[in-house]
Write a structure and sequence with these properties.
The protein is mainly alpha-helical. It has 2 domains: 347 residues, no CATH class; 107 residues, no CATH class. It is built from 21 helices and 4 strands.
Length: 545
């Protein structure tokens, strides 16, 4: 196999003497006392931001970790699979999950996050709700701060810049730090980026180990979360940009044979699911479904006062990347074609972070890797990399203390300040706990039409939940079912006919749902239960045959 030295080794060998002369030729008198004062102030500011990031993320997870009701159906499915020791062949909770998720005869129901569901339930079984929060906070701090921080430092990115960028990246991702399988994707993407870089600069034996690690990583990721496709897209885009860069600059900077093997290993890893090739048919349907794109999580970031706490760090991280990218490349004086790879990755990451809310943390991880490539390939401003004082915070004891601080802050907050509830109340959702308890004690016969979030809650919060009409797994349901649900909920089109067609006996929605207003004005429906968070109406004239 073709053996190519790493770019870092090449640059150090070719430019080491020039860098030392450059540093030595600059007189200490050029660094005035005012510059030293500015550097000390900037250094203190960055270090405080870095140190505060750990407890802030822990407290944030304790506060918002259970705000998404989807955690309920994840735990319910994980519990079912642990109790039965198998994957469900038909959905145990909802009769309306059928055509869309089946890809062939004699195959079990496809639940693409099945392994994450089992892990979440097992953690809950062992450590309770607080344990789930601490696990989420720990995964977030490792994947969104410590791994990219270590990667950037290995590529000669200045210490204070690394700390500032990674702190901004972690803080801007705080709005996605719910207890969900998504956290596994953040970790897997961070590890994949690190393995890809290490593979390019490793010896032949080391490269074989990294390729095997990528195969195992993708095997784990594909069974945990559907965003594994972004990992494959990253690898394909990375080596596609490398090829374009080589063609334009007429200089080979990447071992393409090694890259092809790495990408092949990643693709093969994604075939290790209970459904093998059929799983990709399901993923194709999932990606092409209009229901997926109707989800607000897959929309653009919202510029509103409520999102400023995470939006400002996001914009700061993006600005920090492009400013450093421009300043270093322009001062280097080499052909721009040499930097097609980091610029291409940077453009992809910037657009993705702003255009798709769910992808913002992963896009920022790609942006961090692009910044590392820029510094690995440039040699200017050597003095700037050492002007700010070095700190021991980036050593292994510092990493360990950071994880402990994050986990400790999360555990303390969830124990004394914000007692965890599954799900918890947020500005967007108030759980109808009273209505669910009443329905458990006073069950009704017949088919239920329920709010999708309420459906997720019933699966976990009721010992004997009814067969819900719909729950949070909207992207896994038949498209017609979701369309009919929205028509009935919002009283659009033939909604009355649909209530009869599905033989709905009672409905369970928030008080502000349009369907509640409409049915209360009719004599065919009567009030069964009502409070400020949930209303249950029962059909009083019998279900049409």
């Amino acid at each position: 196999m073709y053996e190519q030295p790493s770019e870092s080794t090449q640059l150090h060998a070719a430019d080491g003497d020039r860098a030392e002369k450059s540093v030595g030729s600059i007189s200490a008198s050029h660094i005035t006392s005012s510059h030293r004062g500015q550097h000390r102030f900037l250094s203190s500011l960055v270090q405080w931001l870095y140190l505060l990031t750990f407890p802030l993320l822990g407290i944030t997870v304790a506060y918002i970790g259970f705000c998404d009701p989807d955690i309920c159906w994840h735990l319910a499915l994980g519990q079912w699979m642990v109790q039965h020791g198998t994957l469900p062949s038909i959905d145990p909770f909802c009769a309306n999950i059928h055509d869309f998720v089946f890809v062939g005869n004699n195959f079990p129901l496809i639940q693409h996050e099945w392994l994450s569901d089992i892990i979440l339930f097992r953690v809950y079984q062992i450590a309770g709700a607080a344990g789930l929060l601490v696990m989420t906070a720990t995964l977030a701090i490792i994947s969104l701060l410590l791994i990219p921080l270590s990667l950037m430092r290995k590529n000669r990115v200045p210490q204070m810049l690394s700390m500032a960028f990674c702190s901004l990246m972690a803080l801007s991702s705080a709005f996605r730090l719910w207890v969900r399988p998504e956290q596994v994707s953040f970790l897997c993407m961070s590890v994949l980026i690190a393995l890809n870089q290490a593979c390019q600069s490793a010896t032949r034996r080391g490269a074989a180990i990294y390729i095997a690690a990528v195969y195992l990583l993708m095997t784990f990721w594909v069974n945990c979360h559907a965003i594994f496709v972004v990992g494959l897209a990253y690898l394909a885009g990375y080596y596609g940009l490398c090829l374009l860069e080589s063609l334009v600059s007429r200089k080979e900077t990447t071992n393409f044979a090694r890259g092809a093997i790495l990408l092949t290993a990643a693709i093969c890893g994604t075939l290790n699911t209970p459904w093998h090739f059929h799983f990709w048919q399901y993923i194709a349907k999932l990606i092409s479904s209009p229901i997926t794109y109707a989800n607000k999580e897959n929309g653009a970031l919202i510029f509103s006062p409520g999102h400023l706490a995470t939006l400002l760090p996001l914009l700061g991280a993006i600005a920090l990347f492009w400013w450093n990218c421009y300043s270093r490349i322009s001062k280097e004086g080499r052909k721009p074609a040499r930097y097609l790879l980091p610029i291409g990755l940077g453009l992809f990451a910037t657009v993705s972070a702003l255009a798709v809310m769910r992808l913002a943390p992963i896009a920022l991880l790609v942006l961090a890797s692009a910044l590392a490539i820029v510094y690995r390939r440039t040699t200017v401003d050597i003095l700037a990399t050492t002007a700010l004082p070095e700190t021991k915070l980036l050593r292994i004891p510092g990493y360990a203390l950071g994880v402990i601080a994050c986990a400790g802050a999360c555990f303390s907050a969830s124990s004394f300040l914000i007692p965890p509830a599954i799900p918890s109340t947020s500005q967007y959702f108030t759980p109808p706990i009273g209505a669910i308890r009443f329905l458990e004690q006073n069950p009704l016969d017949g088919n239920i039409l329920n709010d999708s979030k309420f459906g997720s809650m019933m699966l976990w919060n009721m010992s004997r939940p009814p067969e819900v009409f719909i729950d949070g797994r909207l992207d896994s349901m038949d498209r017609q079912i979701v369309t009919d649900y929205l028509k009935m909920r919002n009283c659009k089109g033939n909604w009355k006919e649909l209530l009869d067609r599905y033989r709905i006996s009672y409905v369970f929605f928030p008080p502000n749902a349009p369907l509640i207003f409409k049915l209360l004005d009719t004599k065919q429906w009567s009030l069964y239960y009502a409070d400020r968070n949930g209303i249950i109406l029962q059909r009083s004239n019998g279900v049409p045959q």
